[in-house]
Recover the amino acids of this structure.
């Protein structure tokens, strides 16, 4: 049985039980209410009966009292003229005008002799002997009012003494009335009443009784007109009815409500019983009915409330149940989804990775290569593909077994990974073949990485406590120089790797053999420059700047030279571009800055006026983070006058990112240092930026000066630069000035500051000092 069916069954059972309890309660309650109503009704009936009886008794007494004061009766008694009493008329009057229908009179003298009876002519007999009440009256002269069973049946009786005006007892008057009027009155109210005399009067009543009807020895006073009731009494048996403890009897069979009132005699013994019958349908049970309806209504309401309550409980429980189920379902779905996702991720991972080393596999490698190639094309940089092949891996496998070989591969992968940058990709594409992608790199950088790899492999790998040495042969190919698709690049790198193996293991080879040679040279140069910086092989020369108007020194430009131990004096064009390419320019500029500041301090201390000293600064240096700090420190260490310091920045460089340059130049200017734009005219300055740039000087490029006399265009450019500079409030200087004609042209055009061989080539410190001596301002 399903849970919901069981629930519904339980629910129905509870409903049935509740309904039964409710019904029992209601019927009990109605029963007690009915009982109460019936009891009250029976009390009412009894009270009414009592009232009627006492009214009747009173009426009888009243008549007796009135008669006792009747003068003619008194006189008759005094004079013993009994024949004078005539009460027949009174009897008729009473019958006509009052409820006393059957009433009898009897007058008895002071000796107990009855001398008048209204119902018979019989008189003169002595009653003192046969009637207790009469003898009592004779003795006590007291009013006696009773209900009693007489010779004929039940009757009201009042005996009142008659006295003369002096109070002398003359006799008595007796008034007797029957119960008929009471019964009649009750009948008018739909109460069928039967009067029954107790059975101990049976003997007394047997002979003289009027009705002659007895049931269970009980005498029925008024059987006439009450035949139905009499037959019912017979059916029930009077004895049985009298045994009833309750105030009333409900005869549902004959539809009668029966009340029994008992009347005792003067001796206190039961005398008579009034059986009052009323048809049940005539009873006023409206209040009970109303109460019953109320109860049923309340029960139904209660029941409905309960059903609603159960329903609400059920619905909320059901809702909760559904919610719980939903929650469970959601969790399950989520878990499943997550599992699926994890599985698909795992699958994707497996599809793109080498199970042994967890490195990207060939698929992912190709993908990454494509990305790197795209990126390089966009940025105009190079991608290097390194094909790494382990030397003698087959021997290692044969010697130690495949498990150790595998473990070795794992360790190698781990070690290599720790040596490469995040943006590089190391993949395993075959047994002992690895490929490394170096995006955005240069040849030099490639060699640096290769050296690192060789260094990393110099340490042995420890597998199962065995020290294993492993080396790589590496083939390198560059994109876009050697190819532009992953397939071509991989093939080329593979070829280069075989060449490397031929050249002897543990070596590398570029695909382009000339490249290999060139690279080797560049690496040598790189090392040489680093060493040269360490060994202070670089020397700063100073080229004078002259005011052509007065042939006086304006300032100097610091120009670096390299005193190479083997090659001799090397000029900047042979190493500055390389330094810029590999980043060494930052160190070199620092070197020159430091030596220039040192020299300026010496000259200032010696009182030598060098005017202003220009120092060439590469953009790499200018944009390096600590450049400002470096200048501060220099000024602190060599406290020269900052207004004698000028930095020369190439126009082409400054215009690459003018917004950024503005910020840096501003902070330089705030230190009091001047800024000149070098090689001006070649860098396509934007006029709007030129206005914003915090520079102080324009240096007309040598290329315009060289041909100025032959080339009208160059002359026009020079004139334009001079006008532009003047309009912007900038200082102008010309470089590369070699002849007197050049000087004349420039002075004529408005530029009198001149730098060039015409006055002097760059000079060593000693030579420069001599020059200053000769051209000093003073
Ligand atoms: P530059 O800044 O334009 O320097 C002027 C170059 O022109 C110098 O060459 C100088 O010797 C040469 N020169 C001067 N007068 C004449 C002349 O009348 N005729 C001819 N034909 N040439 C003349 P140098 O010293 O070989 O320097 C070459 C370039 O190297 C410089 O060009 C500058 O861009 C760079 N450089 C030199 N020293 C430094 C340095 O310390 N730091 C940086 N970043 N660059 C430097
Ligand atoms: Ca310069
Ligand atoms: Ca220049």
């Amino acid at each position: 049985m399903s849970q919901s069916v069981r629930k519904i069954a339980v629910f129905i059972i509870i409903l049935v039980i509740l309904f039964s309890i409710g019904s029992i309660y209601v019927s009990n309650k109605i029963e007690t209410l009915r009982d109460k109503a019936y009891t009250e009704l029976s009390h009412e009936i009894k009270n009414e009966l009592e009232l009627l009886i006492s009214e009747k008794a009173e009426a009888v007494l009243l008549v007796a009292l009135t008669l006792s004061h009747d003068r003619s009766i008194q006189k008759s008694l005094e004079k013993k003229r009994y024949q004078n009493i005539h009460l027949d008329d009174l009897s008729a009057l009473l019958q006509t005008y009052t409820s006393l229908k059957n009433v009898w009179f009897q007058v008895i003298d002071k000796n107990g002799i009855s001398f008048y009876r209204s119902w018979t002519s019989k008189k003169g007999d002595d009653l003192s002997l046969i009637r207790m009440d009469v003898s009592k009256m004779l003795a006590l002269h007291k009013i006696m009012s009773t209900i009693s069973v007489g010779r004929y049946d039940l009757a009201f009786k009042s005996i009142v003494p008659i006295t003369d005006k002096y109070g002398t007892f003359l006799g008595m008057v007796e008034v007797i009335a029957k119960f008929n009027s009471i019964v009649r009155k009750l009948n008018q109210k739909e109460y069928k009443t039967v009067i029954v005399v107790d059975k101990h009067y049976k003997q007394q009543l047997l002979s003289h009784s009027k009705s002659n009807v007895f049931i269970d020895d009980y005498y029925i006073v008024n059987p006439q007109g009450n035949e139905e009731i009499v037959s019912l009494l017979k059916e029930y048996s009077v004895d049985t009815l009298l045994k009833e403890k309750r105030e009333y009897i409900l005869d549902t069979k004959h539809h009668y409500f029966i009340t029994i009132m008992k009347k005792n005699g003067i001796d206190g013994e039961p005398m008579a019983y009034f059986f009052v019958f009323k048809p049940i349908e005539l009873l006023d049970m409206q209040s009970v009915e109303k109460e019953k309806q109320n109860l049923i209504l309340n029960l139904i309401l209660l029941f409905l409330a309960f059903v609603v309550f159960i329903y609400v409980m059920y619905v909320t429980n059901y809702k909760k149940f559904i919610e719980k189920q939903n929650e469970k379902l959601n969790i399950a779905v989520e878990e499943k989804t997550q599992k699926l996702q994890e599985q698909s991720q795992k699958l994707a991972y497996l599809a793109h990775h080498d199970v042994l080393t967890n490195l990207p596999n060939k698929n992912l490698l190709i993908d990454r290569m494509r990305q790197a190639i795209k990126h390089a094309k966009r940025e105009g940089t190079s991608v290097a593909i390194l094909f790494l092949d382990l030397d003698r891996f087959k021997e290692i496998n044969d010697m130690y077994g495949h498990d150790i070989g595998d473990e070795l591969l794992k360790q190698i992968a781990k070690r290599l990974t720790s040596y490469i940058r995040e943006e590089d990709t190391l993949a395993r594409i075959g047994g002992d073949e690895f490929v490394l992608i170096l995006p955005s790199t240069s040849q030099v950088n490639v060699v640096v990485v290769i050296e690192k790899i060789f260094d990393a492999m110099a340490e042995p790998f420890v597998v199962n406590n065995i020290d294993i040495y492993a080396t790589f042969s590496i083939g390198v190919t560059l994109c876009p120089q050697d190819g532009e698709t992953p397939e071509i690049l991989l093939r080329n790198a593979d070829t280069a790797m075989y060449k490397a193996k031929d050249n002897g293991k543990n070596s590398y080879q570029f695909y382009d053999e000339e490249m290999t040679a060139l690279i080797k040279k560049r690496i040598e140069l790189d090392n040489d420059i680093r060493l040269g910086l360490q060994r202070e092989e670089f020397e700063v020369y100073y080229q004078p700047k002259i005011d052509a108007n007065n042939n006086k020194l304006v300032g100097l430009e610091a120009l670096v030279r390299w005193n190479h131990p083997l090659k001799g004096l090397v000029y900047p064009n042979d190493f500055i571009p390389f330094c810029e390419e590999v980043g060494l320019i930052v160190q070199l500029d620092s070197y020159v800055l430091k030596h220039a500041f040192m020299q300026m301090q010496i000259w200032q201390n010696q009182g030598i006026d060098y005017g202003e000293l220009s120092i060439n600064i590469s953009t790499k240096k200018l944009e390096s983070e600590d450049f400002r700090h470096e200048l501060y420190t220099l000024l602190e260490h060599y406290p020269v006058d900052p207004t004698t310091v000028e930095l020369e920045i190439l126009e082409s460089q400054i215009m690459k990112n003018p917004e950024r340059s503005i910020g840096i130049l501003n902070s330089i200017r705030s230190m009091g240092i001047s800024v000149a734009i070098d090689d001006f005219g070649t860098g396509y300055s934007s006029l709007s930026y030129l206005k914003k740039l915090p520079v102080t000087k324009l240096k007309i490029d040598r290329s315009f000066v060289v041909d100025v006399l032959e080339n009208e265009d160059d002359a026009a450019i020079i004139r334009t630069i001079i006008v532009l500079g003047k309009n912007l409030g900038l200082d102008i200087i010309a470089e590369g000035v070699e002849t007197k004609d050049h000087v004349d042209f420039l002075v004529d055009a408005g530029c009198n500051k001149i730098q060039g061989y015409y006055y002097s080539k760059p000079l060593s410190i000693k030579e420069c000092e001599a020059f200053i001596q000769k051209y000093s301002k003073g």
The longest helix spans residues 286-352.
